[in-house]
């Protein structure tokens, strides 16, 4: 890792180091969790105090770009899948936009009775039959999300659709256009079921994203629960303030 400091610059040394490390770890060689140079040797190489170097590294650890392992060293944190709330897309579209090949590990379709919560959301009689779609998805390396979707019966889905295709393209075929998504994010512990599906340990943290999808007339189309591996997914909120 090459870092060059301008000791005559008005920019503090720790900020110069921070910005250069931030750029350096974008290189492919650091994207798989590579180990950072030893702090003692790097501070000697740069001719600065270890506390100045640590100030820079602490900032990047706080931002989640680096991670420390006690007694081992500092590592570049593996890049996580990122989803932006302002740019709402289907899972397939999100992955393709990031240059990631999406993979279906499991796909299950069934007809179930709507519980009270689902009946209220879709304005149905309790115990009405609704279509349930379960999908274990990820990239070509690991599964990192388990989706459970329920659909409004008025859409007309039969259960025989090819759900390996983008979901909202399928809904559009039935003249049901997904226009609005309302979401709730929470952190939960993986139970036995999700630990097995996501290849993690029971009790590990996972991200639960509840998505409520509506058409242009504000009529509910889909209730979706997504359970994500916490180490493989980042959810980014972006707001544009009027000035």
Largest sheet: 6 strands, antiparallel
% residues in beta strands: 25-35%
General shape: elongated
Q: Widest sheet: strand order?
A: 4-5-6-9-8-7
CATH class of the largest domain: Alpha Beta
Fourth CATH level, the homologous superfamily of the largest domain: Chorismate lyase-like
Question: Which percent range fits the helix content?
Answer: 25-40%
Number of DSSP helices?
Answer: 7
How large, in whole angstroms, is the Cα Rg?
Answer: 23 Å
Domain HTH gntR-type: 11-79
GO molecular function: DNA binding; DNA-binding transcription factor activity
Protein name: Transcriptional regulator, GntR family
Pfam family, one: UTRA
Describe what this molecule looks like in 3D.
By secondary structure, this protein is α+β, with helices and mostly antiparallel strands. It has two domains: 13-76, Arc Repressor Mutant, subunit A (Orthogonal Bundle), CATH 1.10.10.10; 81-236, 3-Layer(aba) Sandwich (Chorismate lyase), CATH 3.40.1410.10. Helices cover 25% and strands 31% of the residues. The protein contains seven helices and ten strands. It has helices spanning 13-24, 39-46, 50-62, 91-97, 116-122, 167-173, 192-198; strands at residues 66-69, 73-76, 81-84, 103-113, 129-138, 143-151, 180-189, 205-214, 220-229, 233-236. Helix 1 packs across helix 3. It starts with 12 loop residues before the first helix and ends in a 7-residue tail after the last strand.
